[in-house]
Amino acid sequence: MRRGLPLLGLLALGQCSNEPSGRATLDTALVDLELQSVSPATVLVGSTLVVTGDAFVDDPWGESTLVLDGEIDTGTDTDGRIVRLPARFVDFTRLEVDLDRDAIDLLSDGDSAVFEGTAQIEVRSTVDGRLYRSAASEIEFTVAKTLVPQLVLLTPSSVIFPNEPLEVAGDGILLGDEGTSYAILDGCFTRSDASECMATPSAAVAIEPATSQSRTEGVFAFEPRVAGIEPGRFEGTVSFVNEHSGGDLVSSPATPVTWDLVEPALYGVDTTAASLGRYVTIEGAGFLGGDAQGDTVLRFDGIFTPDLSGVPVELNELLFPEFVGGRQVRYVVNEEDGLAAAVNDVRTEAGLFEGLVTPIIAYEGAEVEGSATALAFRLEPVRQVVWVNFTPAYKEGLRAFGLRAVDSRIRARAVEVINRDFATLNLEVREARPDDFALFAEVDIGGRDPNGLGLLGYDNTPGKDTDNRRLYDRIGGTNAQTQEDGFPGYGGVFIESLFGYSEHPGELAEPVRPDVRFDLLFDPFRPDAGGQPVLAADLASDLPQVDPTQCPVATTSRPEQLACAVHALGTLVGSTISHELGHSLGLADPYGPSIHNEGDQDDRLMDADRPFEERAELEGAGPSRFCIEEYEYLRQTLPSSEPFDVTPRAPCF
Q1: Mean pLDDT over residues 463-491, rounded?
Q2: Which CATH number do you get for residue 294?
Q3: 390: which of 250, 251, 297, 588 lies 20 to 30 Å off by Cα?
Q4: Ramachandran angles phi, psi of 181, nearest 5°
Q5: Within a domain: residue 95?
Q6: What does the angle CA 53 – CA 54 – CA 55 come to, to the nearest 5 degrees?
Q7: Strand 384-390 to strand 249-251: parallel, antiparallel, or no bridges (unpaired)?
């Protein structure tokens, strides 16, 4: 659904209560509650215990508690106790427990100690009021007052670059809110064009743990504030200090070091082809930026040869990449800089950039130029990358269907439908947040409609995006601009609104167009309709292949019923996502005022009110498709090298 739908049409879809109570007699989401591990092995004030497992739930579905049952050994005495600590939901496989002073006192009586025993996760469900417990797992960890940095520098003597990440290994690195571990550098620096070693001010550089839970490996950067950026030799010492959150300082002995500082260098790029909004990640060494300050510029001397004309265009441009780290920067293909100016249209033109790229770094008035390196990458037509973000609210929404256990299968079918709907168009669907594109669209799939209108989906992006000039629309969250003009602010796809097709939606939705086929599909699993939710036992073997035209199946076979339900729900979700994506790409009427297709014809994806059997593709209905004029528009907007799809399509007008 899209801004512009008459308010009466919105209200007809009804409102939903946000209260989860009374929706089930058994919280099947917690039946498979599992605890797998608790880390790190050493904790102190400010530590965060990371609990991994499965079937964790978020508010408002339950309150989670980590229960530690064991003995505290202080070296002189032992004391048995049970400690209960609130656990914070991160995702369905991870909880976190913050250890403040009070929690540490419970685990150690305020002294250093070893806690040995078992750990369990308890969840008080707000769905059925019951207390669920995982199986107990044996654990042992040390509770410390302070940590000594027992670290060894892995490269005490070598050739390095400005801002070089230098590795340390050993033990005792502070994590998160425990405090900060530092490398303390003292010494002098001899520039390559001088003979005197000039004293450098003592510098404390933070050590970054290799992972969020690693006390044994980390890196610190040879930041430009230590000795500048010009070539030369640093001679001195490195010692390590832990500055705890309470202010305690614990240090280690100093280690002699000698490093020869050289100019920045380029090694290569991560891709041979890129399009508008994509990162071209450049690997090298000696890059500046970020908290260490300084700047990195890339000078490109080369040519662009378009595929269409084959006539090279000479380029001499400065590029300003995004700093990632001392060994990596990334350039975003855009429509504003000198490279873009050399191209007729960055969105549609293809060709080859090739030439020499020279890194230039600057810090506090000093500038150093590295050696030129030959690099090349192709420019390709615009590609719309779409992140379909299946939120925790979506997964919790599946519990109302009794289908939470088949989440992955429903997602797979939804993505299959989207890919089919956008086949032969330059659009790519991702289930993980893209890290190779700066510009990408996002569609949030949730549970209930936060607008309280019972919408199946709603594109809350600001205004019609004709020709898809924006590549970064977010269909989801809240958009203040749409709220200001009186339209609903929350966007996305809302799976619980589908219960409007049920003849007995209960508290889940108001009836929209009740269809007995909806209940035939989902009642066998709906807990509020007396059905049996899907559990792990139902998935011991693969689901059978079913003919969707025969769904709902006239059978008592639970596997076949489940296969039909998965296919139908995945199709409903995927088709709704495709519809909302169509809106964000400028449809249904990109150059006119209409929001949806006019009239009423079969199998048109951008119709305002498609019947249930078409949406779910039951009994031979569907699939819905972009009508012919819409498809032709999308082929122009998202040009593809794939052949034109000649599948018959309904006219738009």
Answers
A1: 75
A2: 2.60.40
A3: 588
A4: -95, 135
A5: yes
A6: 145
A7: unpaired
